[in-house]
Write a structure and sequence with these properties.
alpha+beta; Kinesin; 4 domains; eight-stranded mixed sheet; elongated; disordered N terminus; binds adenosine-5'-triphosphate
Length: 926
């Protein structure tokens, strides 16, 4: 028959794609427990201490008494995947070929050769899936799809077993379910899930019928009537059974329906699924419970199945134990056998579902998809541990409930059901493609505590190999040993001896079997103990490394605190220094902006310099230095008085806080001050021999330049200037005010007296003279002019230029001396320049003539308060003498016109005349 079967197998198409999922040459996965290489090339920043993983995982672990293998292969098993091919649906075969099709289908799957039965060839075309051998199937696309979509025939291999359409329920149970049942009876949890497209026979495989009971009824029989089986315990037991379904009513969300006797609907909002667990003590009760639950299950008729399941159904068989008082209770973290009948995925095109059915289809398909995603993610994670295990389980209630299985922590078995018809090619192909990789999924044989009855999971996540087996020994029926009370910390050997002793006392006949169990328990305890010790060692190393790191950081902290302290001190010092510098800078700025300088240049016998700094009128400094013959007498009234010795130098500091009037008197008989500047103060310089040559007073500036014999005595008090020229010299006074907008000069008087050579150049600019012109002034001026004319003293003043057409001006000149009183309340610029004697005389003569004849000259309107004029007889005499000389004046004749403004500058200064005058003066002196 087998040969016939081989011969009658459908002829494979020309091209075959083999999907064996050959094991890849996986990259060497880094072992998490391998000792770290000292040649690691990962980046290490210079200043950052690397995480002390070396210290933590250093080889102290090997000192553990019982070394634990890193990943013992015996703790991992592949999940088992079975494939069951449902008999072809005879009703769907066309009426024309119905008989042939049915026979052909069966004969094909039975292995009947098509050559012997030509009629069956037609039926072969209706089948797309054929069983190649006990572990593989060949899926051939329909002819029309081959042409249009170029789909090739595929071979799916590697199943634990493939059940053809003739397979019996008992066969399926023996190969699929019985190992699970045996493990369950032995204390291991397990889960089997039937998955496949709608109508492919999942429910039939799980539940079956009265005539053909499925794997669940057969398992119950095995569990309760295990006396005849090899692997079962001879002890009669009772079990709790829970049966519920997860259903989505009209797409409103998932809900859990308890299918037990008096079960009620459970809200899907519950964080835990607490279904009623019915205690059953025999198989009849169990089957009855299951049958009633199935009657409650939500089913509906679809195009694909007359009684299609519309929900995911889960049945749990939970082990129990008897207490000392004879009560039965669930074994804490005991074994649970779960059977899951998933609703079949549906294609709306094929089923033609609408309305409620369509909503149910969506829910069913979505749950199937999430289930598949979980398994695929688990597979990828196991292939590449770096790839995180995705939490797809959160996307459906079913996968939440089965999380432990879908994360490979518990034993899982899959049975795929498919339909072999050509119409079902797409569904079958989809399922096979999706599920064939699942064969490589591994699960841990070391179980965690069950979470099915108590789905709230522990948070602790340890490597799978380190998960301790916390299974407790089940209570044997005949014995009264309460293993639950055994201390887990007890050493396995002692534990073994104690249990052995108890067993010998209570049940001598079962000693051998119990010893077997004890050895199993002992092994688990050893594993647990080793894992615990390794964890302890790792924690110890971790704490040591952490301690070292903390010590280092403490030292660094102390060091940094010291540095911080020193830096703070430095900072304070720098701040103090900065303040000092700022102070100095402020002083310098003030000096630059407001400081005044008093410079004294000595004549023949030495030189001197005086600097005056004034900051806000609080500090005033005068420095005078002269090596040869400095200022002998420097007086600062109301302040500091410095007297210099003939050959020494003088440095004086003067503070003036409140006084606004500052007076400096410098007197030196031999080498007087040549250049003196004093702002906002009063300077009085007197020198009889070599008087001040150049005197500048800013903001009340007075310039005096005398070439031969300069001003002997220059006084300016309260804005009062008094310049007296020496016989052979000339003087000029200039007053500038730049910043002050209002400058009042009252009673301004400039007096220049020189008997021999009066002031030649006198300038007074940018000042305002608030002096109301008075008629008396004019009269006095007239009188003065008249007097001077009478004395012929006016000849010395050659030129007077009044640059500003100020309304008020009064100029008076005398023969040998000149006294000028300026009063201009409205003018800002007033300049009086004496050019030469001739011009002055002419101007004065002109002014006098005009004033006398018309009385309407500019001088007419001059109102001068307190006019002060003074004629010096010595000067007049000198001018007389000069007039008698036959001097050739190179100056051009004045261009005339009224007022001094019509005279040009060229006529003011005549070098030849001046030289001549010098010669004359020297001759006169000599
Ligand atoms: N191996 C088989 N032998 C005989 N009949 C079968 C077999 N498998 C399935 N059937 C029949 O096919 C029909 C559909 O089967 P079943 O209800 O188990 O499909 P299903 O996969 O559970 O579908 P759904 O997902 O829609 O619930 C049933 O009438 C069942 O008796």
């Amino acid at each position: 028959m087998e040969e016939e079967g081989k011969d009658t197998s459908p002829k494979c198409p020309y091209t075959i794609t083999v999907r064996r999922n050959p094991p890849r040459k996986a990259k060497k996965t880094p072992s998490t427990n391998a000792p770290p290489s000292s040649k690691s090339t990962y980046f290490k920043p210079k200043d950052i201490r690397p995480y002390p993983i070396d210290d933590i995982l250093k080889c102290d672990v090997s000192q553990a008494p019982t070394p634990v293998p890193v990943a013992p292969p015996e703790n991992l098993e592949s999940i088992r995947v079975f494939l069951r091919v449902r008999p072809i649906d005879i009703r769907k075969v066309s009426t024309k070929n119905s008989d042939v099709a049915a026979k052909g289908a069966r004969s094909k799957l039975k292995g009947v050769s098509p050559k012997r039965d030509l009629k069956k060839t037609a039926i072969k075309k209706e089948v797309c899936l054929c069983v190649t051998d006990s572990q593989s199937v060949t899926l051939a696309p329909p002819a029309d799809m081959q042409d249009t979509r170029r789909v090739k025939t595929e071979l799916y291999d590697g199943f634990n077993h493939v059940f053809d359409s003739d397979s019996l329920q008992k066969d399926v149970y023996e190969k699929v379910m019985d190992p699970l049942v045996c493990d369950f009876i032995a204390g291991k949890s397990g889960m089997i899930a039937a998955m496949g497209p709608t109508g492919s026979g999942k429910t039939h495989t799980v539940f079956g019928s009265a005539r053909e009971p499925g794997i669940l009824p057969l398992a119950l029989r095995k569990i309760f009537n295990s006396s005849g089986n090899n692997c079962s315990s001879e002890l009669a037991r009772s079990y709790y059974i829970s049966i519920f379904e997860i259903y989505s009513e009209r797409g409103k969300g998932e809900k859990i329906v308890d299918l037990s006797l008096d079960g009620t609907d459970l809200s899907s909002q519950q964080s835990t699924i607490k279904c009623q667990q019915v205690l059953v003590t025999n198989v009849a009760e169990a089957e009855s419970l299951i049958a009633r639950g199935m009657l409650k299950r939500t089913t509906a008729m679809t195009n694909s199945n007359t009684q299609s399941s519309r929900s995911q159904c889960i049945i749990n068989i939970i082990a129990t134990q008897k207490t000392f008082d004879g009560k039965v209770e669930i074994v804490l973290n005991g074994p649970v056998l779960s059977i899951v009948d998933l609703a079949g995925a549906e294609r709306s095109q094929k089923t033609g579902n609408q309305g409620t059915r369509l909503l149910e289809s969506n829910f069913i398909n979505n749950t199937s998809m999430v289930f598949a995603q979980c398994l695929r993610s688990l597979l990828e994670h196991q292939k590449n541990p770096k790839k995180q295990l995705q939490k797809h389980f959160q996307n459906s209630l079913l996968t939440k409930y089965l999380r432990d299985y879908l994360e490979g922590k518990k034993r899982m078995t899959l049975i795929l059901t498919v339909k072999p018809g050509e119409d079902d090619y797409v569904d079958t192909s989809h399922l096979l493609r999706q599920a064939s990789p699942y064969m490589k999924i591994k699960f841990s044989t070391v179980e965690e505590p069950s979470t099915l009855a108590y789905p709230k999971r522990a948070v602790e996540k340890l490597p799978r190999i380190e998960q301790p087996k916390r299974r407790k020994l089940r209570e044997p029926d005949a014995s009264e040993i309460d293993e639950a009370k055994i201390d887990n910390s007890e050493h396995p050997v002692l534990k073994k001896e104690r249990i052995l002793k108890q067993l010998q006392q209570h049940e001598p006949l079962n000693v051998k079997k119990e010893l077997h169990k004890i050895s199993h328990s002992e092994k688990a305890c050893c594993t647990e103990l080793a894992g615990t010790k390794r964890r302890e060692q790792i924690l110890l190393n971790f704490s040591k490394a952490l301690w070292n790191v903390l010590k280092q950081y403490k030292q660094k902290l102390e060091h940094s605190e010291d540095e911080n302290q020193s830096l703070k001190e430095n900072l304070n010092m720098e701040r103090a220094r900065c303040l000092e510098l700022e102070k100095e800078l402020g002083l310098l700025k003030l000096n630059d902006s407001h400081g005044t300088q008093l410079v004294v240049e000595d004549s023949a016998l030495g030189s001197g310099a005086a600097e005056i700094y004034q900051e806000k009128c609080t500090i005033f400094k005068v420095e005078v230095s002269d090596e040869c013959s400095p200022v002998k007498d420097l007086k600062v009234e109301d302040h500091q008085v410095v007297e210099d010795s003939p050959l020494g130098s003088v440095a004086a500091e003067i503070d003036d806080e409140k006084s606004t009037i500052f007076k400096v008197e410098v007197s030196d008989e031999r080498s007087p001050v040549k250049d003196l500047k004093l702002e906002d103060h009063q300077v009085e310089v007197s020198d009889e021999c070599s008087p001040v040559k150049d005197l500048k007073l800013e903001d009340h500036q007075v310039e005096v330049s005398v070439e031969c014999s300069p001003v002997n005595d220059l006084k300016l008090e309260d804005h009062h200037q008094d310049v007296e020229d020496s016989p052979l010299g000339s003087g000029a006074a200039e007053i500038d005010q730049e910043k002050c907008t209002i400058f009042k000069v009252q009673n301004l008087e400039v007096e220049v007296s020189d008997e021999r050579s009066p002031v030649k150049d006198l300038k007074l600019e940018d000042h305002q003279v608030n002096s109301a012109p008075t008629q008396s002034m004019n009269q006095e001026f007239k009188a003065f002019i008249g007097k001077e004319n009478a004395g012929n003293d006016i000849e010395n003043l050659k030129h007077v230029d009044i640059k500003d057409k100020s309304p008020n001006q009064d100029i008076a000149g005398a023969g040998l001396g000149l006294s000028v009183l300026l009063s201009s309340p409205h003018s800002k610029v007033l300049s009086v320049t004496a050019l030469n004697e001739e011009a002055v005389s002419e101007t004065l003569a002109h002014n006098i003539t005009e004033s006398e004849q018309e009385c309407c000259s500019p001088l007419k309107s001059v109102n001068v308060q307190k006019p002060r004029r003074r004629l010096l007889p010595a000067s007049s005499l000198l001018l007389k003498e000069l007039n008698t000389l036959d001097l050739e004046v190179e100056n051009e004749e004045p261009k005339g016109g009224r007022g001094g403004k019509k005279f040009t500058e060229e006529r003011i200064l005549s070098k030849g005349g001046v030289s001549l005058l010098r010669l004359l003066k020297s001759n006169v002196r000599s």
